[in-house]
Amino acid sequence: MNVNDINLNAELKKYFGFDTFKGEQKEVIQNLLEGNDTFVLMPTGGGKSLTYQLPALISEGMAIIVSPLIALMKNQVDAIRGISDYRGIAHVLNSSLNKGEIEQVKSDIVNGVTKLLYVAPESLTKEDNIEFFKSVPISFFAIDEAHCISEWGHDFRPEYRNLRNIISKIGKVPIIALTATATPKVQEDIQKTLGMNDAKVFKASFNRPNLYYEIRPKIQVNKEIIRFIKGHLGKSGIIYCLSRKKVEEIAQMLQVNDINALPYHAGLDAKTRVKHQDAFLMEDVDVIVATIAFGMGIDKPDVRFVIHHDMPKSLESYYQETGRAGRDGGEGICLAFYSYKDIEKLEKFLVGKPIAEMEVGNALLQEVVSYAETSISRRKFLLHYFGEEFDEINGPGAEMDDNMRNPKQKIEAGAEVKILLDVIRQTNQKFKSKEIVFVLVGKTNAQINSHRIDQKPFFGIGQYKSDKFWMAAIRQIMVVGLIRKDIETYGIIKITESGFDFIENPKEFMIIEDHNYDNIDEEEKALSAPSKGGGFDKKLFSILKDLRKKVARKNGIPPFAIFQDPSLEDMALQYPITIDELKHIFGVGEGKAKKFGKDFTKEIEKYVKENDITRPEDLVIKTLVNKSTNKVYIIQKTDQKIPLVDIAKNKNLSVDGLLGQMEAIINSGTKININYELNSMLDEDQQDEIYEYFMEAETDSLEEAIEEFDGEYTDEEIRMVRIRFMSEIAN
User: Fold this and answer.
1) Can you give the residue ranges of every domain in the chain?
2) Dist. CA 46–CA 382, nearest whole Å
3) What pLDDT digit, counting tens, does each position of 445-493 carry?
């Protein structure tokens, strides 16, 4: 295939309704279409699926997608069928099919109808399937959830180790391996096992700016969860628990508190699991409660919150599970409840396993503890774990975690950092964090005694500080790269080149002393988290959501497979009343417009007539992608009730400059709600006085209003009430 002859942007628009690719999607697709092996490391929500779905749709032959999760296969097949007139364009081949269904799948493949075939690794190993695949043209293999190949991964599956041999038997075609979570060691193992060391590697940023991270102490946790969910009624969420028993308990507890919730774990029979999953996808149930150990594999873009009732066994698991929130770019709140007792339970699970496995498991758990207890930017901590640096002040989503929203007091500790590094060096870099802290505060254990460290002059040199201070210091200097953990030796601390330089040239170093989890105030904390919003018609949006649910039921597919929320928001902004207008709406495209659009355009036309809405003579299509960055940012931040001075500062604007941009936004027809800021400046009567002036004035001239009030209010106060007035009355 000559890639140069294909207009990938046109194909993207045709099949998926998007105008532009995200990140490196286009480069990944081009590399695959050129016949090259491809490795994609892209976080959840980054658009991995599209990098094999689009090339499969436009290539000759059929792509085979290997996936470990039946739920995810079914989900993706529904989505692909939603953009085509041919049901057979995508199929699943796994143990859930009966003989007749398998025959139908093979018939569609032979007749060239099927472009994507999702298979479980077990199905791929069957000899009759291998022989069948040899007889049909295969475009490429896609190995999804590729971290399952690696024993160092958090979800190792032995059957994945043999994939290379099976693929070789079927024929020589390109391979694309994809994963959302892989440390450098896991990545290397995946490539080596699949025999694709020469593959081109595409590594997207692990940062998900729309996700908000918060850790709370595990006190009155059931009350906290109910309170949180009732503050987010009608939104989809997932709660993860450590055991099946706890899953059932929490699901029942939610149900009796009038929250639509269902359990989902491996102990349920297959029929019940499918029923509960479908109820979640079809929006008949708001909350799914699941075991951490059981991967859900649900590709639902509008999960608005993920709650960890118990902490998981690794940061990879945590990252993947929280990554199921906000995949559409909208609100995604990640709330976890932490108690060290949970960690002790997980440590007990490791007892009796091979020594190497125990050590690795314990090292992973200590990273979870460090993350839960840290007071530095959680986003910076997570990204550092995956080998990525992050600017916690100006980086995308920098303010989106509890530690950054409510920063702790920093203290200067350059002298302490030097002492810490010196102790690591003088103990010959042979100890883990715990032993280093013991040496600093003058405690002993068997390992310290065996090396006679308690007899050294530096033993107890740091006892003027607590062990919690030193543990916090270790975590924070690790994140900035002064030390590192040697995974091969199960967590031994080593000094980096930067660390040795610090010893020779010590300088100022600010440290945040960690939260004290021993004496926590039990008073409930309000979760300050973002909510997505904009200038679309909320009433029409609600009508379209109900219609989407009805159309989804009729077609037997999830609502988001019809149109996703951003598409409905754009419809509620643009009011398209013809199929031609609808196909230009964000995320719709020609296929979906023709297949599902009739009911939606009819409903919008009816709404427009009933509410006497004036549409522009020529519908100017604006999509979220094409809006100016500042416009979207300002709307989002005012919806989140962020102080205007902070919004201005983050965009390098003066408050005067910010108000100017807000005026431009409302003049273009988009509403902005700044009542929260006005309420902190003026009481209700004062606002009403200025508001009523503009209601009765012949012009909205700011100069005339300032002259009218003659110093009674500041220019800024009058200007802000005018913004509110124009937003509410003119728009």
Assistant:
1) 3-203, 211-405, 410-512, 538-624, 627-730
2) 17
3) 888 888 899 899 999 999 999 888 898 888 788 877 899 877 556 568 9
